[in-house]
Amino acid sequence: MRAAVLKEHSEVFAEGLPRRYPNLPLKEEPLDLEDLPTPEVGPNQVLIRVKACGVCYTDIDIIEGRVECSLPLVLGHQIVGRVEEVGFETKGRVKVGDRVGVAWIGWSCGTCRFCRSGLENLCSEFKGTGCHINGGYAEYTTAYEDFTYLIPSEGGLEDYEIAPLLCAGAVGYRALKLADVRDGFRLGLFGFGASAHIITQVVRKLYPSVEIYVFSRSEEHRDLARKLGAEWAGHPQENPPKKLDRAIDFTPVGEMVSRALELLERGGKLVINVIRKQTPTNLDYVKHLWMEREVKSVANVTRKDVKELLSIALKNNVKPEVKTFKLEEVNKALKLVKGAKIRGSAVLLI
Ligand SMILES: [Zn+2]
Ligand SMILES: [Zn+2]
Question: Could you tell me the distance, in angstroms and rounded to a whole number, from the CA of residue 301 to the centre of ligand 2?
């Protein structure tokens, strides 16, 4: 089968630059296109013929070594495909021919205190799809049956529209839940890529009275934000007309944390929806935290988050804006994602 494989981290590190702050263009061709044997389906697993796979900023974090994964590796954790084969010891929940999705949570132990309390995203044995388990930048992939999501074929959304919901949507939705948004609140979104543009649509459906303020350096992204129903969109250095009750930071920029906190109302809360920041975050207690302002990060995603987001999206016709690429164009897609040059989400059609 055709697959895009990560064999080594970006050359940025060979130049002796600090791993956390590579703020440099992506290596020209970070993934190699290869012919690999079709994976063998193991116990409790299913084999999936991949149809679409979303490209996520986390893939850049993996390529550049900020997120540790096992190499060589097939990336890709927003997978939509059809079940081709079911392995031994599966429960019969999914059948050959079913349309299924696979998200970042590829496996968790199910027995630790985090897993038992609904926080499987914090499981210390957590395995990420396209990180500890080969992912969907390939014609076929295997996934644990319990970590697949059945998606109705007549759901109204195409495979390439479902794909971005599985990480950009689901993790953004987790951030939204952690932000504890309520009717009438003013919500700030910092950065307007794949995740924020889905979450804007979700907020518009679930909390029509919430005012959305979007901060982005890209005029094109600010336009999209207004089109999707944001009340206000400006440059991160611009001051919004009102203070924010809640904020979600989607950017890899460390300084955005202090900027968002500065704009929070008393008692406000900031949720940071990124795996790694690429520049330092400096906080001043009085300026950024005093008056009961809160900060929280988002780590991974639970199956419940994915299921809820998929159901909200299918019910309310939440539709990501998508730019599609062929598998052979994966390196081009990654480069555009790194440069925040995609309007909405980038998805590989396979
Ligand atoms: Zn992701
Ligand atoms: Zn666990």
Answer: 13
